[in-house]
Write a structure and sequence with these properties.
Helix content is 36%, strand content 24%. The protein contains 13 helices and 21 strands.
Length: 434
């Protein structure tokens, strides 16, 4: 094999690509990891919450928690705050952990990149922008990539037995292969902005928390998470027709929106932003064709969904793990390429689709309010309050956040009705207490 020839070329070197490279490197495959940015650098958009289930997969590649979560406080409790009450969600134990992190994406991405490149058969190039795919003489199969070394303006070609698109929502591999989309849901688009702050007042309990706030109008959802180096990530999400700042006014719009919420306004009273506002407009919800002749997609290049439930990093790592298993079977002639693609696609879809549906329903029911348009908002909010007060519901919610249970199978109407009943009785009991 020549110096510019590899078993696998991975386009995109952040979480998905680095995790995939580490899995493949552990199995002795010669891997080239290509990343257009210089790491560490901020991610254009990410809800940075990771749970124990994600960390358990990172354990499998030996990624040190002490590096990717350096100086980041563990979060044992998530809180839902709807301006009338707080609902605590204790994170359940899973494979030795009962906590998560609101990680700093720049630190997280760099730690996983460095870890992958410690493996003897993994190489990496940063600041390399892939411009085109290389095809075989018949123009049917992908055999490599061509692109530009941004720091020195030189072009280069790299050849691989297979090319993986781990390059996110706007994947060049997906574009150049005209990958088809499936199960796309364009009717409820949202837009998200976020930044990191210093000096944000801690929650009243004093411990590190992740708090989901909703506005009284229901137009915005907020997530405030204690993160690395005594910073706090503050995320705002809303319908794309409402979260629509004028050109050049993103920072002002973001500051105005987050201070609309009285609790957040109070918490940032003596705080300051320490990073530019990042975000993404009109977030896509879809699956793409898993792959074709010589190419395959993974992470957000393959499957995208709204970040409101904080499951994006988990899905990225899980799809990288499943693809790595398939690529190893193909590499060792246990599956042919088409069989591998079919198996990978089926495995990831079966695991991610229930959460996909649950997330879309959550967007419809909260930010768009379309699930029960005939019912008054006050009745819907009261019913939710009763459900949220139910301890069984709180336990199940923690398990869903940690991907320990299927939300579609668990949160059935019969379960929610019983939760509302138990919660209403609990509220009545609290009111009757002297």
């Amino acid at each position: 094999m020549q110096p510019n020839e590899y078993d696998i070329i991975i386009v995109g070197g952040r979480v998905t690509g680095a995790v995939l490279a580490a899995y493949l490197g552990q199995n002795g495959m010669k891997v080239l990891l290509l990343e257009k940015d210089a790491l560490p650098s901020p991610h254009p958009f990410s809800c940075p919450m990771i749970q124990a289930a994600t960390m358990a997969m990172l354990d499998e590649i030996g990624a040190p928690e002490s590096e990717y979560a350096r100086h980041t406080p563990p979060i044992h409790k998530m809180i839902i705050d709807d301006e009338r009450m707080e609902i605590p969600i204790e994170l359940p134990y899973h494979k030795g952990r009962n906590y998560g992190y609101a990680i700093d994406r720049a630190r997280f991405d760099k730690a996983l990149w460095d870890h992958a490149l410690r493996l003897e058969t993994v190489s990496g190039i940063q600041r390399f922008k892939v411009n085109h795919l290389l095809w075989d003489e018949q123009g049917e199969g992908v055999i490599g990539v061509t692109g530009t070394h941004l720091d020195r303006g030189e072009t280069a070609r790299y050849y691989g037995k297979r090319v993986v698109g781990a390059d996110g929502r706007f994947s060049i591999v997906a574009r150049k292969t005209s990958a088809k989309t499936y199960d796309e849901r364009p009717n409820y688009p949202t837009t998200v902005y976020y930044s990191y702050w210093e000096g944000v007042a801690r929650h009243a309990q004093g411990e590190a928390t992740s708090i989901a706030y909703t506005s009284a109008s229901g137009e915005f959802a907020y997530l405030v998470m204690d993160s690395a180096d005594n910073t706090t990530a503050i995320v705002v999400e809303g319908r794309s027709d409402i979260v629509a700042p004028s050109a050049g006014m993103v920072d002002e719009f973001y500051n105005d929106i987050i201070t609309l919420h009285p609790a957040i306004k109070q918490r940032v009273r003596n705080a300051r932003r320490v990073q530019p506002v990042q975000g993404i407009k009109r977030i896509g919800n879809l699956y793409r064709q898993a792959g074709g002749k010589g190419w395959v997609l993974v992470g957000d290049a393959y499957h995208q969904k709204d970040p409101i439930d904080g499951q994006g990093i988990y899905d990225a790592v899980y799809s990288a793990k499943m693809l790595a298993q398939g690529l190893c079977q193909w590499y060792h002639h246990q599956l042919d390429w088409d069989e591998m693609l079919h198996q990978y696609d089926e495995q990831v879809r079966a695991h991610t689709y229930p959460q996909y549906e649950a997330t879309l329903q959550r967007i419809q029911g909260t930010l768009y309010g379309t699930l029960n348009p005939a019912l008054p908002k006050s009745l819907l909010r009261g019913t939710f309050r009763w459900i949220a007060k139910d301890r069984v519901y709180q336990e199940i919610t923690g398990q869903i956040l940690n991907r320990q249970t299927d939300p579609q199978a668990t949160l059935k109407p019969s379960f929610l009705m019983m939760a509302a009943l138990r919660g209403s009785l609990r509220e009545l009991s609290e009111r009757l207490e002297p």
